[in-house]
Amino acid sequence: MRNWVVSVCVGIISTCMQFPVEAQSANHSSVDTSNHSLASDTEFPVTLDVIVDEIRNISIGHANFEIVAETLLTWTLPDLTRRVSAPRTITGSSVDETLADTWDPGLFISNALQPRTIVARSLTMYPDGSVELYEKFSALVSIDSAMPTYPFGEVDLLLEIQSVNHPLPEFVFVPRKFELGHHGNPDEVTKGNWSLHDRRTEVIETSSLSHGGASRFSVAVLHVALAHDFIDIAQKIFVPLLSVMLLSLAINKYMVIYETETGGDNGNWRVGGQLTLLLTLFALKFSLGDEIPATHYMTMIDALFISVSLLVVLALLWGMYVIHAFQSDRIEFAQKLEQKSNLIFVLLAVGSLSWVSTFLLK
Known about the structure:
10 strands; single chain; disordered N terminus; six-stranded mixed sheet; alpha+beta; 6 helices; four-stranded antiparallel sheet
C-alpha cells in the first residue's frame, strides 16, 4: 500500500514538472510566429506611376535610345501625420532638403548610359502623412534585348528603375500605373519607323555593392515592345541586297565569255560587273551601320549580307577562272564551266535564301 501511494505521488510531481516546460515551448513557438509576421509587416511599399512622354533616336547599331518620362513615387510615413494642415508642394532645392530631413527613396536608372537629366521635380506632402515625389527626366538608355530575327519580331526596350538608399525590405516597388502618352495615343510617343506592340511592368530583386554588398534591392522594370516598320526596312536593306543578288546572277548568265585570246569584252564585263557589285555591298554595309544590330550573335540581316557577299565573291572568282581557262587554250574545259555556272549559282542563291529564312523560326 505504501509503495502504491509513493508511486502516485511521484507521478503527480513529474506531471507538474513537465507542464512548465510544455508551456514554455508553446510560448516560444508563438514568439517565432509573431516575429515572422512582424518581418512581413516591415516591408515599406513605394507606389510607382510612370508615363512615357517620348521614345526617340532608337539606334539599333549603337544599342541605345532616348526616353523622356514622368514618374510619381508615393509613400506614407506615420511620423509625418498632421505635419502639414493642407497639401503642400515643395520645389527647387528644398526638395532635397526635405527628403534628407524625412525619408529619401534614392533612385537611379540602372541601364542608363549616363546620369539622367532632370527636367522638373516637386515634392507634395499631405496631412495624412503620405508623400508624392514627382519627376520628369530624360535619359539615354541601352538596348539589351535579343534580336536574332531583326528586322522581324519585336525589340524589347527596358527602363530599369532601382532603389539605392534602402535595401529590401525597407523599400519595395509597387507599380500602379504605366502608360505611353497623356492622351491615350501611344503611337505618338515612339518617334521614327516604329510601332507599339505591348507594354508591361515587373519587379525584380538585384544585388549591389551598396550597403556592404550583402543586401538586395528592389528594381522596377518597364518593358516597351516595339516592331520596326517593314516597308522602311525593305527599302533600305532587302530591296538593295536582293537586287545585288539578282544582278550577280544576271551578269553570270548573260555576260558570256567568248573563245578569244583575251576573253572578249564580255569577259571584262563579267569581272568588272561582279567587282562593282562587291564594292556596292561594302558601301551598303557601311551606310546601314545604325540599322544593323551590333550583337555577338548572327541576326537575319547578317545572314543575308553574308549570303549575298558569298554569292558575288564566288561569281567573281568563277568568272576570273573561266577567263584564265580560255586564255590557257583549255577551251572545252572552260565551256563546261561556263555551262554549269548558271545552275550552280542559282542553286547557291536558293540555298542561301532558304538558310536566311530559317532565322524567322528563332
